[in-house]
Amino acid sequence: MKNDELKALFQKITDQGFTGEAGFKIRDFEEGAITLEVAPKPELTQFLGYVHAGVVTGLADHAAGAAYATVLPEGKACMTIELKINFLKPAAGDMLAAEARVVSAGKSIGVVQSDVYGEKEGVRTLCATALVTLRSITVGG
Q1: Second label for 15, Cα 20 to 30 Å away, from 60, 64, 97, 111?
Q2: Dihedral of the CA atoms 81, 50, 29, 123 (nearest 10)?
């Protein structure tokens, strides 16, 4: 599948369910790396007004899955089997962006680094960093 087709397919997937309701969007997309973004809204915050850790984790995880999926052969998808995340600063700003890049792209297991930044007025703050392990699965037929 060509990169543009894969990007369109992944945005279609991202527009569904939790990620769609949260408003996740693709910012940058290339083989082995992706950036997803979400504009914080009140429904995504916790009691102090920061973006909820579950949303930050979901953004990091979804970006990681997309990054690994870009290096898999056609007919394959992936699912997270382990995720380790460190929260470094409160998640805040006009936009959150998860930058994911493949660290190891095995045929059955992949490892992806996913960093989440809060962005406000051109200033980026690293909020969280995740290491995500994913398993390649066969889809369809």
Answers
A1: 111
A2: -140
